[in-house]
Amino acid sequence: MYWGILVIAGLLEVVWAYAMKESQGFTRLLPTSIMLVSMIASFGLLALAMRHLPLGTSYMVWTGIGAIGAFIVGVWLLGESLSPMRVMAALLIIAGIVTMKAAH
């Protein structure tokens, strides 16, 4: 159950990162509002998951989901480059998350 909560927290991190980009420096109300709500929810769920999961594992998985998710959203929705080096970096982050989860 707490792993699921952690995954949702990580996905909400992707939402707030994308909303922050779309807020254009907090000048657009709706994306800024979405960012704030999803940020609070993400941190809250992370805190809940950390009650039962180790700090290092929780934080690494949370930030990893956010980093990979933001990378995918950037490429898919924002037209950011998909170079071999960026893909390799993303795969290394995924490998780190899987290894950390396996070590738990």
UniProtKB/TrEMBL annotation:
Keyword rRNA-binding: no
Superkingdom as given in the UniProt entry: Bacteria
Main location: membrane
Signal peptide feature range: none
Transmembrane segments: 33-50, 59-79, 85-103
Keywords: Cell membrane, Membrane, Transmembrane, Transmembrane helix, Transport
SUPFAM superfamilies: Multidrug resistance efflux transporter EmrE (SSF103481)
Coiled coil: none
Membrane-protein topology: Multi-pass membrane protein
Identification of the protein by name: Guanidinium exporter
Pfam families in alphabetical order: Multi_Drug_Res
Compartments, as annotated in UniProt: Cell membrane
